[in-house]
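Fold it.
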Amino acid sequence: YHSCLHGWIPTVIKGIHLSRPVCVDVPSETDAVLGKSMKLTCIYCMKRDEIKAKTRVNWYFKPNEEKGNSSNKTHIYKYEINRSVELDGPFKGRLAWNGSQDLQDVSIQIINVTYNDSGIYECNVSREFEFDFFKPSAFLVKKIQLKVKAKATGNAAALYSEIMMYVLLVCLTFWLLVEMVYCYRKISQSDEQAQDTSATATEWVHIMSRQVNVCQISV
């Protein structure tokens, strides 16, 4: 039994070690706060059989179009051959890689957000998979419309949920109070009935005792 267990444990540990982390594709936040950092989320999940792949990531930025003026997108960041490259432009020195080691998460982070950072960010991901006989490729494009605000604003859904939680707590507290009052009254009534029953029984015992005494005197 010990030898079987000794061989089984390393196998389980090896299986856990080789298992890939779970990848979940989530949308990026779109509201940034002036002067704070902002993560631009871009996730491109791979299947289990797509382990070996050459991944290239390119980020572009297009500012909001003003009336009568059209703007072109600018190449601001790229990642290839296991290294990131920050390009010249308005984001020089303010971009940082925020992706994962397996390159399923290829997000970047803006440091010290300014009002000029409002606009459309485009995440382009290309993969070249390495199989035995062929090398297929895949491509993904994600766009993020970023808005910069002076200060953080609360999420309406979160605020509504918080209000409903407090309302529910108040209702539950009131219901428990009503139940406690009801139970207290029921217990009081039961005690009164028990006392009445005890008094009646005592009185009946006294009456029977008197009758017995009367019968003895008569005899």
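DSSP finds two helices and nine strands in the chain.
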